[in-house]
Amino acid sequence: MRPTPLPAAAGQESVWDYPRPPRVERTSELVVVTLGNVPVATTTDAVRVLETSHPPVYYLPFGAFEPGVLEAAGGASVCEFKGVAAYVSVRADGRLLSRVGWTYPAPLPGYEILADRVALYAGDLRCTVDGELVQPQAGGFYGGWITSRVVGPFKGSPATLGW
N or C: which end of the chain has fewer CB within 10 A? Predict the structure, then answer.
């Protein structure tokens, strides 16, 4: 059952206006990721993947990451739209966050821009978009970043599995 979308105020986007299959768009927003007090990535060259009921997923270019912070991790998953994802871990500030990000080395047609980019779960990392601290999408599977720019309700918590 589809929930009732929250009204979007001026300058906001409703995730219920996002398409399915998802749309990919470039953004020049300043994205900064840190672990503890250690920089992990900084860019104004991210892309957002926008899909119905999900907060945006930000994909950062590999070149935005500090040298040595990304490590290949085991496992893979499949997205019907984007293809086979490979996982990455982040090592910084004396810590290793295992499988905290993913990439599409050979994305399906329409998603080629994701090939040299990484998306990150915001839970254990400090991620900001234009200076605003993001909140992670609930549920631990999807990697959306919630800011004041988007309104839901958002898919991810157990009660949303049927959306």
Answer: N
3 state SS for the chain:
CCCCCCCCCCCCEEHHHCCCCCEEEEECCCEEEEECCEEEEEECCEEEEECCCCCCEEEEEHHHECCCCEEEEEEEEEECCCEEEEEEEEEECCEEEEEEEEECCCCCCCCHHHCCEEEECCCCCEEEECCEECEECCCCCCCCEECCCEECCCECEHHHCCC
pLDDT in tens, 11-68: 999 999 999 999 999 999 999 999 999 999 999 999 999 999 999 999 999 999 999 9
Per the DSSP assignment, residues forming a β-bridge with 38 are 35
Of 49, 91, 47, 50, nearest in space to 67 by CA: 91
In our burial notation (b when 16+ CB lie closer than 10 A, e otherwise), range 93-129 reads eeeebeebbbbbeebeeebebbeebbbbbbeebebbb
For each of the domains in the chain, give its residue range(s) and CATH number, in order of start.
13-160 (2.170.150.40)
Please calculate the CA angle 54-19-23 and round it to the nearest 5 degrees. 85
- For the stretch 68-86, pLDDT in tens is 999 999 999 999 999 999 9
